[in-house]
Amino acid sequence: MTTAADIMHPGAHWIPADETLDRAAQLMREHGVGALPVSDPMDPDERMVGLITDRDIVVMCVASGHEPSHVTAGELCRGTPHWIASRASVQDVLREMEGNQIRRLPVIDENRRFVGMISEADLAQFLSDDQLAHFVERVYSS
After folding, report:
1. CB atoms within 10 A of CB 92
2. Cα(132)–Cα(103) distance, rounded to whole angstroms?
3. pLDDT tens digit sequence for 96-139
4. What are the distances in angstroms from CA 87 to CA 3, 7, 15, 109, 124?
5. What is the CATH number of domain 4-140?
6. Are the beta carbons of 37 and 119 closer than 8 angstroms?
7. Residues whose CB is less than 8 angstroms from the CB of residue 36 and which lie 6 or more positions away in sequence, other chains included
8. Which residue of 28, 37, 47, 108 is most buried, as measured by CB atoms within 10 A?
9. pTM score
10. pLDDT, tens digit, 9 for 90 and up, residues 41-78
11. Is the dihedral of CA 11, 110, 102, 8 positive or negative?
12. How many CB atoms lie within 10 A of CB 107?
């Protein structure tokens, strides 16, 4: 059985909730990623409190007239963060992403530590054309 750990992009990076969005954008550029999980810097287990994307920074901060150096990652996070266990099946991954209409899904290990990220590009390497078309239809439908 192919698992989330098999298809994820390993070695993704966190950003603390109290870090600014300009730093988040710099980290995204440095690591060539479009999303970062946000951690609670006061939590010794660094639990995830949300996820921010490059699009979030542009639409919810810059386009709204805010200065990225004055807004924190934690301020931009909204809703309950979604994640999947590294041992979950690809079908579980698809259910989570399709059911919540999300394009990126953090992966955690058995110790609840962040170990990677699954994106559409990662799925495209493992799904048939029909499965991928179904995924895109479900995630992008209103």
Report:
1. 14
2. 12
3. 999 999 999 999 988 878 889 999 889 999 888 998 899 989 98
4. 5, 11, 24, 8, 19
5. 3.10.580.10
6. no
7. 12, 13, 14, 15, 24, 27, 28, 51, 52, 73
8. 37
9. 0.83
10. 887 777 788 899 999 999 999 999 999 999 999 999 87
11. positive
12. 27
Tokens, residue 124: 């495209």
Q: What is the residue-averaged pLDDT of the chain?
A: 90
The token duo for 30 is 């440095």
How far is 90 from 3, CA to CA, in rounded Å? 6
Q: d(Cα 46, Cα 48) in Å, to the nearest integer?
A: 6
Q: Name the residue type at position 49.
A: V
